[in-house]
Specification:
Layout: H1 10-14, E1 30-35, E2 45-46, H2 48-55, E3 61-67, H3 74-82, E4 104-107, E5 111-114, E6 120-128, H4 140-153, E7 156-162, H5 167-189, E8 200-206, H6 210-215, H7 220-229, H8 252-256, E9 260-264, H9 272-276, H10 288-302, E10 309-311, E11 325-327, H11 330-343, H12 349-352, H13 359-391, H14 397-415, H15 417-426, H16 429-433, H17 435-476, H18 479-489, E12 499-504, E13 520-524, H19 529-538, E14 542-549, E15 555-560, E16 580-584, H20 590-607, H21 615-622
Parallel strand pairs: 3-6, 3-7, 7-8, 8-9
Antiparallel strand pairs: 1-2, 1-4, 4-6, 5-6, 10-11, 12-16, 13-15, 14-15, 14-16
Helix pairs in contact: 2-11, 3-10, 4-5, 13-14, 13-17, 14-17, 15-17
Length: 640
């Protein structure tokens, strides 16, 4: 199937779609439609509150759903694309690294939109729990059933992932498509034919660096074609789609969806803090590029939108040309969904582990898999704690309370290791083959993992408490006063360089006027501290401030001479875990740097009260030194 070119913004007027189609406060909120079972089976359970939303639909309606990996922005893109304004946070948005949405949620009311033929169609929106969530109890079987049901429910599926994408991302999407195929096969085997047209797929890639496409001379359609070619279909179970799907070069996604379109979505904002806490900020402060891309997601989803229906013709998931649709009202659709849930339950084969290995080998594999899983969970909780301490670094009663709450939250999730690990075990073949020994192994490993993780989290808490205190002390001291004190303390080697540590977990990052990291030079990787200092001393474009990160492949960078970041003080709230910031007192280029510093101060004074704040000078200086960087920060691009 070919892909359609992205609709221009004027096309939004042609389909008569305003931002979300909302007018006034009509009580929009999200209600649960499916939830996880109390006993871990991987099978979703219906929730009456969500079913009542469907039952209330007495006219034709469509469903647009968002699925994808956890913490990639599904909830945000639904809100900003379809409910922008007062209701843009209709689906709750998380602010950490753990999965926020649980189960499947549906908007309490439909949005009315005008479609291409001029008629009005009601649209319900669905948000789902992210795949491979952290801090929750999920399994591949649960995710397989979630994707399969959402596929059957939807007129359009928005598959949301994070940049970058590669063949492994496509393989993941193809694996989810195979789950939908398995569910279709299970329904067919039980006599429940799915007589509906194939839904459409919109693949949204968040935090996309559009210049990667430009540099390759590609458009989004070209990228989709390249990714499609990187995938090959599985031959198992493919007969349910008919003989035409038997080709070994077929992309399963192409056979299960009527059309596929890829939409690139750029970063919402330059600030990590804003990106990680999108629910706190309305769309007026977000990047115009991000909002434009959200418009494109909306346009792609609304294009040729069809109501939920049943085809008159016999057959499973037909093409639009093969189907004569009969729109369904809510009560009929609920009856259909109930049958899908009852007869379409599937097991992910990787959860079964049906092999002929002996007991010792099987339990050893379980032990290794659990160890890796526990380590991943703890590492993510550790990053969560570090991030929250950075967000709430300023001294206040409210921030102290929030830091305490962050400690309590990660401690609570860590104590859930037992339950989560046992639930994973119950859904695996090991439990049914060796229930007693499997459970004892998991219990023992969970105890050990919790002890290790507690030590790690306690260490991070102490480290961040020390950092926040040091950070406040550093901010309270004028920079030049601090540098004079450090210079007096600095060693003065005969013929050598004299420099002093200014701050741990700090870098020369500079986001001048929101224009990006333009006042920092990147000198390379693989350097020792001494080699980094030598490189800074000899590069006259560097100021006195520099950074070194031993744990990040020996990264070395410096503040740019002749800018407000010459001493790496332009962004005094920067936090880069593991990096260290220094000040140099006798660089080889001292005279040239002093002149550059003098010019920078003159420029800054002249620009005081002006609109560009000296940004024009910075832009002119930086263009010759904008080398690629390799830098690690705890404030990463994850949001929901």
């Amino acid at each position: 199937m070919g892909t359609r070119a992205i609709l221009p913004l004027l096309a939004l007027l042609e389909v008569g779609l305003a931002f979300g189609g909302l007018s006034g406060d009509q009580g929009w909120h999200a209600v649960p439609l499916f939830r996880k079972p109390a006993v871990s089976t991987g099978q979703l359970e219906l929730v009456e509150e969500g079913l009542n939303v469907l039952r209330a639909q007495t006219e034709p309606f469509a469903i647009v759903s968002a699925v994808g990996p956890t913490r990639t922005g599904k909830s945000s893109i639904l809100g900003r694309a379809f409910f922008r304004g007062e209701h843009e946070n209709i689906f709750e948005v998380g602010s950490g690294v753990t999965s926020h949405t649980g189960g499947v949620w549906i908007a309490s009311q439909p949005v009315e939109v005008k479609v291409a033929d001029g008629s009005t169609l009601r649209v319900l929106f669905i948000d789902t729990e992210g795949f491979s969530g952290v801090g929750g109890i999920t399994s591949k079987t649960y995710e397989a059933n979630l994707f399969g049901l959402v596929y059957l429910l939807s007129s359009v599926v928005i598959f949301n992932t994070m940049f970058p994408v590669d063949a492994s991302t496509v393989a993941s999407l193809n694996a989810h498509a195979s789950h939908a195929l398995s569910m279709l096969q299970a329904l067919t085997d039980s006599g429940q034919l799915v007589q509906k047209a194939k839904p459409r797929l919109v693949w949204s890639i968040q935090s996309f660096n559009i210049y990667n496409l430009h540099n390759s001379g590609m458009a989004a359609t070209d990228l989709l074609a390249a990714l499609r070619n990187a995938s090959r279909a599985s031959g198992a179970g493919i007969a349910v789609l008919g003989g035409e799907a038997a080709s070994s070069s077929t992309w399963l996604v192409e056979r299960l969806f009527e059309q596929q379109e890829l939409v690139t979505v750029r970063r919402p904002h330059a600030s990590d803090e804003v990106v990680a806490n999108l629910a706190k900020y309305n769309s007026t402060i977000l990047s115009a590029d991000y909002l434009h891309d959200a418009d494109q997601v909306r346009a792609a989803a609304m294009h040729d939108l069809k109501a939920v229906h049943r085809c008159k013709e016999a057959g499973t998931v037909l093409t639009l040309s093969e189907c004569t649709p009969q729109p369904l009202v809510g009560t009929d659709f609920v009856a259909q969904v109930s049958l899908w849930l009852k007869h379409g339950y599937i097991l992910d084969r990787s959860d079964l582990e049906l092999d002929t290995a002996d007991e010792a080998e099987t339990l050893n594999r379980l032990r290794e898999r659990n160890r890796k899983w526990f380590d991943e969970q703890c590492a993510t909780l550790n990053e969560e704690l570090r991030t929250k301490f950075y967000w709430y670094r300023e001294e206040s009663a409210d921030n102290a309370k929030l830091r305490d709450e962050a400690v309590a939250a990660v401690d609570k999730m860590m104590k859930g290791f037992h339950g989560a690990a046992l639930s994973r075990l119950v859904e695996s073949g090991v439990f049914w083959k060796f229930p007693g020994k499997g459970a004892m192994l998991v219990e023992a490993q969970a105890d050990q993992a919790m002890q290790r993780c507690k030590e790690t989290l306690d260490g991070t808490r102490r480290h961040m408490e020390g950092w926040t205190a040091s950070h406040r002390a550093t901010k309270a001291t004028p920079a030049q006063e601090l540098f004079k004190k450090l210079e007096a303390e600095a060693p003065k080697p005969s013929g050598g360089l004299s420099y002093k540590l200014v701050a741990e977990d700090s870098s020369c990052f500079s986001n001048a006027g929101g224009a990006g990291d333009i006042h920092r030079l990147h000198l390379g990787n693989g350097m020792t501290l001494e080699a980094c200092a030598e490189a800074v001393s000899k590069k006259c474009e560097c100021g006195r401030g520099f950074e070194h990160d031993k744990g990040n492949d020996g990264y070395c960078g410096c503040g740019m001479a002749g800018t407000p970041n010459t001493d790496c003080t332009e962004s005094d709230d920067d936090f880069s875990y593991g990096s260290a910031r220094y000040i140099m007192f006798n660089p080889a280029c001292l005279n040239q740097q002093s002149e550059a510093r003098k010019r920078a101060l003159e420029q800054a004074n002249a620009a005081a009260g002006g609109e560009d704040g000296g940004g024009a000078l910075a832009a002119a200086v930086v263009k010759d030194y904008d080398a690629p960087k390799k830098r690690r920060q705890v404030c990463f691009d994850v949001y929901d």
